[in-house]
Amino acid sequence: MPPAFKKAAAARLAARGGLIVIMLALWAAERPGAALGMLAAVSILEAFWILNPSTRFFGPIITQLPAGRGGVLVTIDDGPTPETTTAMLEELDAQQVKAVFFLIGEKARRWPELVREIQRRGHEIGNHTEHHPAKRFWRLMPGETWREIAQCQETLQEITGTRPRWFRAPAGHFQSFTHPALDSLDLRLMGWSCRGYDGTDADVNRVCKRIENRLKPGCIVLLHESRPSSVELLRRVLGTIREHGLKPAPPGALPG
Ligand SMILES: [Zn+2]
Questions:
Q1: Which of 4, 169, 188, 214 has CB 3.0 to 4.6 Å from 194, enough for a Cys bridge?
Q2: Distance in angstroms (rounded) separating the CA atoms of residues 170 and 176
């Protein structure tokens, strides 16, 4: 772990420790109501920030393309996987669209040829952690946060020869140690502004309708692979983008 990350993580841990000391002091001063009120307020605020995948509370995040660039950026999470990656690449080629694939490190190591194929066809590859701990990422301590992001970065660099520029948190639940790790690895956080909840809803019509309702110039669309409906959904979404007079934007439309 680089010293800059350790220092930033220690400062954040100290801030948490300071809050606990204040609560204990209030309790010791026989003001349990104030202590419990503070605990409740901090817990509610932290839950709100963690559950809000677009929050800027912890640090910068891109959820839209820069103003004036128009188009719609398609991003695809959770690959690679033999069940869907090749078919999704074929669909993107057929519609002449370039996307950003946020890949999971341990899957990339199992199917490195798929990662190279994504790269060979001109798509951008992003870091989506080594093991995709979607249910725990929001509460990981500094060491594990660092390992999840840094190991994936190493895995993808070994396979592709280049280091990803973008990171997406599993389920979008980043936390106070995420940005220090990203800063040390020269990564930037990407969220989204348009999603149809395809991770939890297998109904292509419903998912597509939700995406359609949120489509705007400059938006970043979140899709997933590894699911039975992934390829059909991608085809439908690309058609919907064009029906709305929008164009899929290449990853080159992202800030440099
Ligand atoms: Zn994911």
A1: 214
A2: 15
Q: How many angstroms separate the alpha carbon of residue 111 from the centre of ligand 1?
A: 17
Residue 59: band (very low, low, confident or very high) from pLDDT cuts 50, 70, 90: confident
17 C-alpha to center of ligand 1: Å? 31
pTM, entire model = 0.89
Say how many Å lie between the CA of residue 131 and the centre of ligand 1.
10
What's the whole-number average pLDDT of the chain?
92
Whether domain 72-253 has CATH 1.10.357.10: the reply is no
- Which of 77, 128, 132, 179 does the annotation list as catalytic? 77
Residues near 122 by Cβ (< 8 Å), separated by ≥ 6?
98
- pLDDT classification of 94: cutoffs 50, 70, 90: very high
How confident is the model at residue 23, as a pLDDT?
84
105 CA to centre of ligand 1 in angstroms: 11
Copy the structure tokens of residue 212.
């359609």
Question: Can 77 be counted among the known catalytic residues?
Answer: yes
